Amino acid sequence: MIAETGLIALLIAAALALLQAAMGFGALRPDGESLLRAVRPVAVVQAAMTVTAFAMLLLLFSQTDLSVKLVAEDSATTLPLLYRITGAWGNHEGSMLMWVTILAVAGAAVAMFERRLPERTLAATIGAQGLIAMGFFAFLLFSSNPFERLPVPPVEGSGFNPLLQDPGLAFHPPTLYVGYVGLSVAFSFAVGALLTRDVSPAFARAMRPWVLGAWIFLTLGITAGSYWAYYELGWGGWWFWDPTENASLMPWLAATALLHSVSVLATRDGLRAWTVMLAVVAFSMSMVGTFLVRSGILTSVHAFALDPRRGAFILILLALYIGGALALFGARIATVAEGNRFDPVSREGALVANNLLLSAILGVVLIGTLYPLLVESATGDKLSVGPPYFNAAAGPLALILVAIMAGGPMMRWRRDRLVTVGRRVAIPAAVVVVALVAVLGALPGLRILPLLGLVLAAGAAAASVAPLWKRNLRRTPLFTWGMVVAHLGIAVSLAGMASESAFSQETLIAARPGETVHVGPYAIRFAAIDPIAGENYTAVKATLVATRGASTPITLSPEQRTFDNPPQQTAESAIATLVDGQLYTVVGEPVPGGRWQLRLWWKPFVTLIWAGGVLVAVGGALSLIGRVRPRRQVRAERDGYAR
Amino acid sequence: MTLRTVRILLWLPLAAFLLILALVAGGLIKPHDAAIRSQMVGRPLPAFDLASARGDATRIRAQGFADGKPRLLNFFASWCIPCVGEAPQLLALKRAGVAIEGIAVRDRPADLAAFLQQNGDPYERIGLDDSSGVQMALGSSGVPETFLIDGRGIVRSQHIGAIGPQDVGDMLAAVRAAQ
After folding, report:
1. Coil, helix or strand for A598?
2. Dihedral pair phi/psi, residue A357, rounded to 5°
3. Is the confidence metric ipTM above 0.85 for this complex?
4. What residues make up the domain containing B114?
5. Across the interface, do B13 and A312 touch by the CB < 8 Å criterion?
6. Would you say the pTM of this structure is higher than 0.80?
7. B37 occurs within a structural domain
């Protein structure tokens, strides 16, 4: 009965989404006032039904009900409980249900908590949210039904992809999806505002917390995904420019741009059309990402569903939603009154430069991601676009962006004088020069991008705390703290990236037990290799004892695991995190002569990459808390909080 | 900018999106072909020098292919099941006068000898590619795969997978055309 309950809940939710869309848009008619209030509860009940359906799926997976096709295909009774539950979204249908659940909950949250948006715009926003949900409900019900039963249940399930059998699965997809799908709120806000022609600072202030919320989760999700790939795949890299990574990076870039342009709209009533555009683009990028990954059109580690029919379905949804929103933009935005103008040398000017650069990087990533498709349809050749393109094209843009990020907050709103700006950036500029001299002196021959990265990171770190300079820290608004912490996080992350790329050392060697090998400052004794058995796998475990100088030896135990259901081998890396970096070890295949392949890396300060990502998210959370306390904010904005 | 141009520019995002949509829809409609073709077709054979898998002193070298005579270069292994199915076709090609060189991928001489005894030996020479290095240099991603090398040592074509009975005629014609 559980599967049927889930399916019925899903059907009711789909019907309610249709109702929600009709009521929300109906409320815009002159006689639609009665619908304004009624649409809110519909959105809430719709979300409750969707959550029920998702809960039923979780129940089915935790009980391993093999009469359900999805469970039989993607789980097994032999799995540990954690992976029996998280397995619910480690497949196409389940993850799409999670996607829609978050969409519905986001819509309900808007219906319950949004008080600042004008009633008519709010009703249209909730309607748009219902319309998006409806399409994805249809997708689930018609082509990806997670509750489908099997006529004859198998004795045992086909097991679960061993690479996904990791605690990371409990954290990375849910946070990333909250970020992805949370951006739907900004999209619906934009659609609502275009329909009512009401794009104003009040609209921006209402939208800002929602964008911030989604962006925090997106930042965390990407950070977690990067670290997960880093330790789980055993390749030692933290970013691969895989289509799916790009699919998560593009909405983040758009959302980051949106976060900054929405501030210009909220504070200075500028960038009206641009902000609306970005709100549409951010969630569009989420949907495009979902499509690219799920249609199997691009090859990726995340491609569960190689099914062109599903791809065609999502493509039609994309055409309707994104095409519809962009057409609405083209038709309506010209009738939105133009906002305030401002001087190029000003806070707004810096934010516009930030937006243009973020958009340019977004374009670079989008072109790189779609280029293989373009070439294949033009010439039939297959190729893949990798780090050489992305690093060369996006790297320099990102560095300029960091420089603007460092300088922008020191500028005044509306108009500033270059001379005074120059005086304010003197200290960070001095830090840059000192760092440049130090790095050039200590490490001649460093490649240009890591060099600039290290130097800029130092400057940006100094500049990011500058807004706190000579200020009463206890009376500094929370959102200013948020900006400081987030910008500092970017600098920290950049330092980690540059350090990883400049100083990583790698040793790939076939060694016998008893031998000692070297990587970076470490001497590593290959102490032993032993067979072990886990709950649903067997493995060989290497014991490595690493010593640096006179310090206490560290023992690392990388494993080569063999799962039998489904049969697959995975390399389980062992990582030692130290104050100044990580020692990363992988044991590979046996080599004739009693030797084993060992792959060892010493990665100085690599952890800063993810520490920075977490700092960025913490900064976002501080801003969010600061923004949802309305009275202080209004006062601060009236007084010109930016000094 | 006049108001008119601005109004037109506002439709640009939609136009860009429609372009992407068309591109992606095109990619979706096309049948999925996961085979990865070698980039070496049309280029000279990459340099290699392998020891013989038969245990004798002969070596199989890339330069040896540029002697004016077209040859097939067959990647196979004793552990490869489709290679068993392919063996009769290779023998037929040999009987038709085609010179076939073999490269055994990640194989052991003893297993190889048993394989050749069981399935016949169409090869002039067999090189032992322990690390798949030569295979990768040729842009081959599996066994069996067969390359046609012309008399100047240029890679002319690649056949992915086993050579079936229906392929023998085409392959023979291709070898003759490369003469």
Report:
1. strand
2. -65, -45
3. no
4. 49-177
5. no
6. yes
7. no
